[in-house]
Amino acid sequence: MSSVDHEKIEQAVTMILEAIGEDPNREGLLDTPKRVARMYDEVFQGLRQDPKEHFKTVFGEDHEELVLVKDIPFYSMCEHHLVPFFGKAHIGYLPRGGKVTGLSKLARAVEAVTRRPQLQERITSTIADSMVDTLDPRGVMVVIEAEHMCMTMRGVRKPGSKTVTSAVRGAFEKNDAARAEVLSLIKE
Ligand SMILES: Nc1nc2c(ncn2[C@@H]2O[C@H](COP(=O)(O)OP(=O)(O)OP(=O)(O)O)[C@@H](O)[C@H]2O)c(=O)[nH]1
Ligand SMILES: [Zn+2]
């Protein structure tokens, strides 16, 4: 798998340390540029993944009712400030034609989409649209709740505030009761 450009990140981090008035040569900071490069390799590895790939794992199963995987933890990086936002993703779908995907694949898709510079809204809709494109389900509902460090440790400084986004596709769009069922199961 290709990776981030470690050398470039190391140079950039050294420049940032200099720019903030630090000494990149003091003992505690000597390995910091290398560490940050390794960290970015990890937290941005979703840039080299396609969430749709995971939904290619399908099983024939005669189940057309709700499948919900909830409380999938995720960590992402706000694309405006490059600081973390993190929370939980809940993914529900109504399979069509006996086509269900592996449960872990829902969590793997969350990893692929969140491990990039992101916006919460885009994570939500990308997961929903990837499922629509690959699984052709009767409906998909994705709900994401997150805390944004750029709103807590800096800027407006509102720790504890949560952002909730949802993306609703197919049968869920018209069916209030089906949406309500998912929301009540998420809350349990
Ligand atoms: N819609 C959306 N906005 C986000 C997300 N993450 C961070 N933001 C917002 O992006 C906005 C960037 O606003 P700017 O005015 O360009 O930047 P800023 O001066 O650093 O803004 P403040 O955070 O208000 O200090 C802020 O309002 C952030 O809260 C996200 O996932 N979705
Ligand atoms: Zn931000």
TrEMBL record:
Pathway where it operates: Cofactor biosynthesis; 7,8-dihydroneopterin triphosphate biosynthesis; 7,8-dihydroneopterin triphosphate from GTP: step 1/1
Gene Ontology terms describing biological process: one-carbon metabolic process; tetrahydrobiopterin biosynthetic process; tetrahydrofolate biosynthetic process
The enzyme's E.C. designation: 3.5.4.16
Binding residue positions for Zn(2+): C78, H81, C150
Keywords tagged on the record: GTP-binding, Hydrolase, Metal-binding, Nucleotide-binding, One-carbon metabolism, Zinc
Example GO molecular function: GTP cyclohydrolase I activity
Quaternary structure and interacting proteins, as annotated: Homopolymer.
Gene3D superfamilies according to UniProt: 1.10.286.10, 3.30.1130.10
Entry coiled-coil feature ranges: none
Catalytic activity: GTP + H2O = 7,8-dihydroneopterin 3'-triphosphate + formate + H(+)
Domain GTP cyclohydrolase I: 9-186
Family classification: Belongs to the GTP cyclohydrolase I family.
Protein name stated in the entry: GTP cyclohydrolase 1
Signal peptide: none
InterPro entries reported for this sequence: GTP-CH-I_C/QueF, GTP-CH-I_N, GTP_CycHdrlase_I, GTP_CycHdrlase_I_CS, GTP_CycHdrlase_I_dom
Organism: Salipaludibacillus keqinensis
GO cellular component terms listed in the entry, alphabetical order: cytoplasm
